[in-house]
Design brief:
Blueprint: H1 2-22, E1 32-36, H2 41-52, E2 56-61, H3 64-72, E3 79-82, H4 88-102, E4 109-112, H5 128-155, E5 159-162, H6 176-191
Parallel strand pairs: 1-2, 1-4, 2-3, 4-5
């Protein structure tokens, strides 16, 4: 009897999974997603993948070289903007730029991916400025970008995705990286 119950439960699980995977988002080509940290790594990969799926990607890069490289490997639909998440003035400028692009539709997705890890060392080897360098990018920049764009995300009934790390739960080494990722976890929980 337990075998039959297990088989039925497994069948229901697989049926539910199949159903969820077949669901699609209507009018995906009309939706805008802003991704920070698109010069390289996860942000660059995500921007290219979402562009291939038909979304209107607004890719925020730190350098012009990173932006040019991303534009060259994507469709004309993808747009880039230079963003330094440690600059309040730059964040305000990019927020206005995004508002012009999305109009009344709002921003369907915000992916806070920008981040740095260095300097990493035992805590007693570092200064407060070493910690602040990482915290300003990974945590405070993420918070300010989110708060600036939240009205546009709400308008589209969109989502905020904050890229954290397992080191947001367990500290493996000293420096600001683990501290900042703990903060990202806490901010994400409070935003939810």
């Amino acid at each position: 009897m337990w075998l039959w119950v297990s088989v039925v439960l497994l069948g229901l699980f697989l049926l539910r999974r199949w159903h969820r995977e077949r669901q699609t988002v209507p009018r995906l080509w009309e939706k805008h997603v802003l991704i920070t940290g698109c010069d390289s790594g996860f942000g660059n990969l995500l921007a290219r993948q979402l562009d291939q799926r038909g979304l209107r990607v607004l890719a925020a890069c730190l350098t012009e070289a990173g932006a040019a490289q991303l534009r060259a490997s994507a469709s004309p639909r993808l747009q880039t903007v230079l963003l330094d998440v440690t600059s309040s003035q730059n964040i305000a400028t990019v927020t206005a730029w995004v508002r012009e692009r999305v109009g009344d539709q709002g921003l369907w997705g915000l992916v806070n991916n920008a981040g740095i890890a260095i300097p990493v060392a035992p805590n007693e080897w570092l200064t407060k400025d070493d910690f602040m360098k990482v915290l300003n990018v990974n945590l405070l920049g993420l918070v300010e970008v989110t708060l600036s764009l939240l009205p546009l995300v709400r308008r589209a009934r969109g989502r905020v995705v904050n890229v954290a790390s397992v080191m947001g739960r367990v500290s493996f080494f000293g420096g600001g990286y683990c501290v900042s990722k703990y903060g990202v976890e806490a901010f994400s929980d409070s935003l939810r």
